[in-house]
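Handoff note, outgoing to incoming analyst
You'll be picking up this chain. Sequence as last confirmed:
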Amino acid sequence: MNRLLRRIAVFVGLVLLGISIYWSAVGFNFTIAGDAASDYADAAVFIAYALAISGTVMQFIFSTSLKELNATLIILGLATYVYSIFTNKAGITHFQGSEANSLAAWGLAFFLDIAPEPLIAWGLYESLVGDFLGNLGKSLMGDDTKGGSRQSKPKSTPYQPSRHNNRRGAR
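Most recent structure output, in case you need it:
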């Protein structure tokens, strides 16, 4: 049962990831200026999907072990989540049409951005390595016990003989 549930979790995570990428790309929607606007429509779609997929990769990276991330990856990870949640919300609102429910759109955007990575990670037996909420808390609280960019070099300590060794000069 556990193996089946893990496979389903990976599948559901991938489906949610696809929806998130789609709505993020739709949320990237903007009006192209100038006379050649129609010439740039295909490029805009490509750019929107490239940003959505790149953001997804960055989110997966941020959802790994925080001690393996430098300050740039941590900041980019957090910024990517903010950007992706915003563009998902815009895409969802666009999808809802004239009767858009902003509160539901924000909730769904947050869910779609947060849920895929841990579902896929759990399905692949990697859920304890790192996650968005855990890494967010560690990053904001400056938790250097887990490493990350705030990790300092180990302090060298002067030699101190063991309490159990009473011989002088023993090392």
